[in-house]
Design goal:
The complex is a heterodimer of chains A (279) and B (307). Chain A is mostly helical and 279 residues long. Chain A is built from 11 helices and no strands. The chains are: A mainly alpha (279), B alpha/beta (307). Bound molecules: adenosine-5'-diphosphate and magnesium ion (MG).
């Protein structure tokens, strides 16, 4: 057998561990159950036929994804990356750079969470194709892509939080992760809208556009809704955003750039922080 | 093989290790001895690349490279004082993971499991292991690559009897193979007999390096005998002082400091002076006191007594 690079060895191990972890399994079940419930009931409630009504279901699914996926990625990420004393020492004393170990772990975690989401999307997709036919499928993939983007972003943020917790214990890192989730998912929109309401309309819409790109949750939400063409469900921020980027192509590019930065920058900072930490 | 060059580590304002300079040569077995909090773990972890020096450097391997470089760690294996493994994995899976990382050959897995007396438990999840078994699994992982340098933190405190047998055996074999071993300990025990040199660390500073025999002698020098007499006279004290100049009177007792060798002679003197012994206790030298004396300053061992 050919020798596997340490990066791949670490990724494989982390994938196995994360797949076996109770947290990931609970997430797969909850996410799958809720997706299925939203997809089937949402469709039935809208009482319609065809893909137009799919949009409404998708909007509910987008809410579910933007709420649940960041939370799970942060928690699973911190649990795996801020290990208790004694677990990291043996690992980091191996002749492998900390950066390699971190990125290997991140890949393994990402694949495990992606698999867990696959179950949820599979369940929802089944319900939707049953009701709405294949036309819903392409739009549904947009949602899945958004979900994976959020997974990558918040795993990278979890890595950054965990690297700072090296030697401080996991409880503190978990508390910071919860605060980060609350800030990004709940507080941020409220604050942005409140601030905008005090500004004149020109500055207000600039602020709202900025808020869509600054917060990865808003970026992915906007992107997913855009892809699904659920413009009717758009909030003020997203509409302002679409006006400024002059159409979908510009919007998609801006959102993609935001997501890539939100993965790359925290991951890079995490690696740097970890390299410098005492274990 | 391991070179500490004015190695200093500060945690905030606290100085954990202060300008430690010591060379562990290839093939040597060295014990790092000192009380709790003296900086042993910090020194060892730095050689394992886990802690960055605040000043100075720690070089490992030949030629010496900073331990923080991953390539330098190719020459090292480290066993922490307390290891943790993912509970869901079996012992064999844990070893297989590190074997893949190190690129060791396939037969090594069974060899090291047998070495750590885990061959029967290798396929059980770590969840079902006792604390001693987990530590032995750590030992198995540490010996996996047969590294030129092996670093062990408090092996005698952390390992169970089966683990200790493996550890003693390991150190002897490594010495035979010309490999280098550095381990820490906070009490002078059997393990130190394995060491070619014992480096004593107190309050983050190197108090000196000794052989096991030197340290044992110093310790014995710091013992004392306490003799209770029916009636203690000045003649008796004078007689005892002929063989032990630092003998003193404490209450009704005659206290004779020094090694065990002086005690029979002191008792003979007492008897010759007509003393009747009604009670006798002895106290051996305490390592913690020796540590304190070593830091207080090297006065040599001319003065065997305590104040
Ligand atoms: N990560 C750390 N943060 C702060 N202080 C530390 C840390 N590690 C060790 N220390 C302090 O440094 C000193 C030396 O610790 P250590 O090397 O563990 O000693 P030993 O292993 O000899 O018991 C102790 O006073 C300890 O409290
Ligand atoms: Mg220690």
């Amino acid at each position: 057998m050919r020798r596997l690079a340490p990066f791949a060895v670490v990724a494989r191990q982390e994938f196995v561990l994360a797949s076996q972890s109770r947290w990931t399994q609970i997430f797969a079940l909850v996410f799958g159950g809720l997706s299925f419930a939203v997809a089937s009931s949402g469709y039935i409630l809208s009482g319609g036929h065809g893909v137009q009504d799919f949009a409404r279901t998708a909007v509910s699914l987008v809410q579910l994804v933007t709420l649940l996926v960041p939370l799970t990625s942060l928690l699973v990420g911190v649990m795996a990356l801020a290990p208790e004393r004694g677990a990291a020492e043996l690992m980091f004393s191996q002749p492998v750079s900390r950066r390699t170990i971190l990125f290997g772990k991140l890949l393994g975690l990402f694949l495990a969470l992606a698999a867990a989401q696959g179950i949820g999307f599979g369940a929802a997709g089944l319900a939707i194709s049953w009701e709405a036919g294949d036309e819903g499928a392409a739009r549904f993939l947009m949602l899945a892509a958004g979900s994976l983007a959020l997974t990558a972003v918040f795993l990278a943020v979890a890595a950054w939080i965990s690297a700072g917790a090296q030697g401080h214990g996991r409880a503190r890192a978990l508390a910071i992760a919860l605060a980060a989730w609350f800030g990004a998912v709940v507080l941020f929109d409220v604050a942005a809208l409140a601030a905008a309401s005090f500004l004149r309309s020109g500055s207000a819409s600039r602020l709202l556009v900025a808020s869509v790109l600054v917060n990865p949750v808003d970026a992915v939400r906007t992107g997913a809704l855009l892809g699904i063409e659920g413009v009717t469900a758009f909030g003020a921020a997203s509409l302002a955003f679409l006006r400024l980027t002059r159409g979908t192509a510009g919007a998609a590019a801006a959102i993609t750039a935001s997501v890539i930065l939100w993965v790359a920058v925290p991951a890079w900072l995490a690696a740097r922080r970890l390299e410098r930490a005492d274990v | 093989m391991i070179a500490y060059r004015a190695f200093t580590k500060r945690f905030g304002r606290q100085v954990a290790v202060d300008a430690l300079t010591i060379d562990v040569r290839a093939g040597e077995t060295v014990a790092l001895l000192g009380p709790n909090g003296s900086g042993k773990t910090t020194s060892l972890k730095t050689a394992a690349g886990l802690i960055h020096p605040s000043a100075g450097e720690v070089l490992v391997g030949e030629p010496g490279l900073p331990a923080s470089k991953p390539s330098a760690r190719q020459a090292c294996s480290f066993l922490p004082q307390k290891v943790l493994f993912p509970e869901a994995l079996s012992g064999r899976e844990v070893v297989e993971f590190y074997r893949a990382i190190r690129g060791a050959s396939g037969e090594r897995t069974d060899e090291v499991l047998r070495f750590a007396s885990l061959n029967g438990a290798g396929d059980r999840p770590v969840r079902t292991y006792s604390g001693g078994m987990v530590q032995r699994l750590g030992l198995a992982v540490a010996v996996l690559p047969d590294s030129p340098i092996l670093l062990l933190d408090e092996p005698t405190a952390a390992l169970d009897p089966a683990g200790l047998v493996a550890f003693y055996d390991l150190v002897e074999r490594r010495r035979g193979a010309g490999r280098t071993t550095l381990f820490t300990s906070h009490q002078l025990g059997d393990a130190e007999r394995l060491a070619d040199r014992i480096a004593v660390l107190v309050d983050g500073r190197l108090a000196g390096t000794f052989t096991e025999r030197e340290l044992a002698t110093r310790l014995a020098d710091r013992g004392s005998m306490r003799v209770r007499l029916e009636r203690l006279t000045a003649t008796m004290l004078a007689a005892v002082r002929e063989v032990c100049p630092h003998a003193t009177v404490e209450g009704a007792d005659l206290v004779v400091p020094g090694t065990a060798a002086v005690r029979p002679r002191a008792l003979e003197k007492i008897q010759a002076a007509g003393g009747i012994v009604t009670g006798l206790t002895t106290e051996e030298g305490r390592l913690d006191r020796l540590f304190l004396e070593l830091v207080a300053g090297e006065g040599g061992d001319a003065d065997g007594g305590r104040a």
